[in-house]
């Protein structure tokens, strides 16, 4: 049995893909930039800062940190504006309630604190997590394990006793780099084959899969 479960947010607990794409597109358009939808979708999970830096370099623009900070803030504002369009995945709330009191539970998202805090509040999930970490809390994005290692430290749990829930290849890479077990959930943009290639300890179709509870609690 694990001592702690650490959850990603976007694409793992909540279906945020559409809102994230719209928020990026709106901000990029307002700043004279554009990229294909697929480009944005396949970078969900690494954090908006790194995504904007990458896009600016791709478009031959200097990735000035003041500009990156402004773009991230604008994107967060759009996401909060569209928060009512975000839906939790089937089984998300039930899984969190099942784990509560049995293992320590943390949220580790590369989204911004303003977005995550708002979504947790309107979905009545604030009490489900003992620790909440966001992109604002770390200096390095997934696939670097920093955010997961910080979550484990705050939970006072060794990485080896933690299991991470992730939907992206970046997240699975980060969990494994942090010497943590990982459950890959195929609810994001990545195929089963792409997730399997990162060698998660368990791959499930969704959060309702009964194998999750057996893996985490036994």
CATH architecture of the largest domain: 3-Layer(aba) Sandwich
Structural class estimated from helices and strands? alpha/beta
Outline: globular
What's the pLDDT, averaged over the residues? 96
Strand line-up in the sheet with most strands: 5-4-1-6-7-8
**CATH topology name of the largest domain:** Rossmann fold
For the record, the CATH class of the largest domain is Alpha Beta
Number of continuous helical runs: 10
Count the beta strands.
Answer: 8
Number of domains: 2
The gyration radius over C-alpha positions equals 17 Å
State the separation between the terminal residues, measured CA to CA: 5 Å
Percentage beta strand: 5-15%
Helical proportion, percent range: 40-55%
Main β sheet profile:
6 strands, parallel
**CATH homologous superfamily classification of the largest domain:** HAD superfamily/HAD-like
What report would you give on this structure?
The protein is of the alpha/beta class and about 220 residues long. It folds into two domains: about 5-15 and about 85-215, HAD superfamily/HAD-like (Rossmann fold, 3-Layer(aba) Sandwich), CATH 3.40.50; about 15-85, DNA polymerase, domain 1, CATH 1.10.150. The chain is built from ten helices and eight strands. The strands form two sheets. It has a six-stranded parallel sheet, with helices on both faces. A two-stranded antiparallel sheet has the order 2-3. Strand 6, helix 8 and strand 7 (about 180-185) form a beta-alpha-beta unit.
């Amino acid at each position: 049995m694990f001592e702690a479960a650490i959850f990603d947010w976007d694409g793992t607990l909540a279906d945020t893909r559409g809102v994230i794409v719209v928020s990026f597109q709106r901000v990029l358009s307002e700043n004279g930039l554009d990229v294909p939808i697929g480009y944005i979708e396949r970078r969900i999970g690494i954090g908006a800062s790194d995504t904007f830096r990458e896009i600016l370099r791709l478009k031959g623009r200097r990735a000035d940190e003041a500009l990156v900070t402004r773009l991230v803030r604008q994107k967060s504002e759009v996401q909060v504006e569209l928060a009512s369009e975000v839906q939790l995945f089937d089984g998300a709330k039930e899984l969190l309630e099942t784990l509560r009191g049995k293992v320590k539970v943390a949220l580790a998202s590369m989204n911004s604190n303003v977005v995550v805090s708002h979504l947790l509040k309107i979905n009545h999930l604030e009490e489900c997590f003992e620790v909440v970490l966001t992109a604002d809390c770390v200096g390095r994005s997934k696939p670097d394990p920093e955010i997961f290692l910080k979550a484990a430290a705050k939970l006072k749990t060794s990485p080896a006793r933690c299991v991470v829930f992730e939907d992206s290849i970046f997240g699975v890479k980060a969990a494994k780099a942090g010497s943590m077990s990982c459950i890959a959930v195929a609810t994001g943009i990545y195929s089963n084959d792409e997730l399997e290639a990162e060698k998660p300890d368990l791959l499930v179709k969704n959060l309702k899969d009964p194998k999750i509870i057996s893996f985490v609690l036994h």
